[in-house]
Automatic annotation (TrEMBL):
Gene3D superfamilies linked: Methylthiotransferase, N-terminal domain, tm_1862 like domain
Subcellular location: Cytoplasm
Subunit description: Monomer.
Enzyme Commission no: 2.8.4.3
Keywords in alphabetical order: 4Fe-4S, Cytoplasm, Iron, Iron-sulfur, Metal-binding, S-adenosyl-L-methionine, Transferase, tRNA processing
NCBIfam families attached to this UniProt entry: miaB-methiolase, MiaB/RimO family radical SAM methylthiotransferase
Domain MTTase N-terminal as annotated: residue spans: 22-142
GN (gene name): miaB
One Gene Ontology term of the molecular function aspect: metal ion binding
Catalytic activity: N(6)-dimethylallyladenosine(37) in tRNA + (sulfur carrier)-SH + AH2 + 2 S-adenosyl-L-methionine = 2-methylsulfanyl-N(6)-dimethylallyladenosine(37) in tRNA + (sulfur carrier)-H + 5'-deoxyadenosine + L-methionine + A + S-adenosyl-L-homocysteine + 2 H(+); N(6)-dimethylallyladenosine(37) in tRNA + (sulfur carrier)-SH + AH2 + S-adenosyl-L-methionine = 2-thio-N(6)-dimethylallyladenosine(37) in tRNA + (sulfur carrier)-H + 5'-deoxyadenosine + L-methionine + A + H(+); 2-thio-N(6)-dimethylallyladenosine(37) in tRNA + S-adenosyl-L-methionine = 2-methylsulfanyl-N(6)-dimethylallyladenosine(37) in tRNA + S-adenosyl-L-homocysteine + H(+)
Name used for this protein in its record: tRNA-2-methylthio-N(6)-dimethylallyladenosine synthase
Cofactor info, note text: Binds 2 [4Fe-4S] clusters. One cluster is coordinated with 3 cysteines and an exchangeable S-adenosyl-L-methionine.
InterPro entries in the record: Elp3/MiaA/NifB-like_rSAM (IPR006638), Methylthiotransferase (IPR005839), Methylthiotransferase_CS (IPR020612), Methylthiotransferase_N (IPR013848), Methylthiotransferase_N_sf (IPR038135), MiaB_methiolase (IPR006463), rSAM (IPR007197), rSAM_horseshoe (IPR023404)
Residues in Radical SAM core domain copies: 169-401
Amino acid sequence: MTDQNSTGAVAGQSAPAAGGTRKVFVKTYGCQMNVYDSERMTDALSKDGYEPTTTLEDADLVLLNTCHIREKAAEKVYSQLGRLRDLKKARAKEGREFMIGVTGCVAQAEGGEILRRAPAVDLVIGPQTYHRLPEALKRAKQGERVVDTDYAIEDKFEHLPAPKKAQTRARGVTAFLTVQEGCDKFCTFCVVPYTRGSEVSRPLAQIVAEAERLVEAGVREITLLGQNVNAWHGEGEDGVERGLGALLTRLSQIDGLARIRYTTSHPRDMDDELIAAHRDLPKLMPYLHLPVQSGSDRILKAMNRRHTAAEYVALIERIRAVQPDLAISGDFIVGFPGETDADFEDTLELVRQVGYAQAFSFKYSVRPGTPGAEMDGQVPEGVKSERLERLQALLFEQQTAFAAGCVGKEIDLLLEKPGRMPGQLVGRSPWLHPVNIDANGSEIGDIVRARITGAGPNSLFAEAIG
Ligand code: SAH
Ligand code: SF4
Ligand code: F3S
């Protein structure tokens, strides 16, 4: 999982509602798992007559689905709540309902503290209890200020309603599907084990049923999600306990499903079966997000990543040996406590050895309650900024080189949405680049054969062939 979506995005679609229906505006911060959760909350509320809106002014209910991963992400929520408080006051004068809910990882981490800091908030719901959202909303409407941050024992996925076919279709031809939640790894910088709870895998049959439902509604590409997606395990149809490789194999048997991806993986959980899946499953896209965080063994140890830099590089080599076409993506943290110039140089060296097609890099952010926050040797902000700049320059160079290397290649392109120019569509390359192409009679959802003709800073250009 990558929190590349940190500017926030709106779930659902902008279908204009009939007069009188209530509307929910969901603002999503953080990673893809929050995007998925926002959709499922929207589905849960549709039973109560709520339609999604992308216009705040139309909303009767606002949900901020929040992220706690770095300080900035968490602080964003409070500034947004300040603006919503003003809107709530204005609505009260008109006598119109305006409910505010905080969900996601800040909700889990701060719980009732949010109600104290932001008196306009009506409900606070943690990620493991979204199936109880309609009930919580009912109580909030009766005047109770609700906080529900239990780690529910019942399976929330069993209780969350499936979207209507039309809703799935409106969301497009690609979809996220959470297969695993939570994390037991306890990297010393990270809040996720505290905000999402311990690692849980959804049962195979439940995942297959959801994937089949998505495909029936027109979805062509599914991205399996998990904080540690490759830690997924479950009983196969033969009753034997298997890993993510087996799940991918099962899903690739679904007719009509053209492409499968998964994110985010931990290097420790890349087993042989999963590596073999990259060789054996044509539907599995040649893209792997495999964060390493640092190239220094000393720092990796302090981070509790439980592998060395050399083990990571060797792992990448093993996967590339079975799938030479693979694009590698990564996450990096600079300025972890104790990181010296030499440690940072090791990170640059690892990056040079691997060659990344895509990457996300961050300055270490102190998270209260994590072991990293208590460590000696906190790195000054200025040093962090300098290192980040150098790392990002190198990663950008590699990204640009990878994209330039795509020019001239022939690919299958899944057309996803209208392009900026009339007659243009945007698709995704196997390596996840947005690709602009003239529609030429093709439609969204089609997979066309195309030749890549150019590479811009953020996207590729292609022409149809054959
Ligand atoms: N489970 C995934 C990552 C989840 S969080 C993994 O193990 O790789 C996404 C990314 O946010 C991380 O990979 C890390 O690079 C970054 N991140 C997490 N905590 C952070 C912190 N305290 N400061 C800066 N970046 C952080
Ligand atoms: Fe956080 Fe580490 Fe778990 Fe990833 S593996 S979610 S970085 S604790
Ligand atoms: Fe953020 Fe929670 Fe995802 S902290 S990155 S929204 S798991």
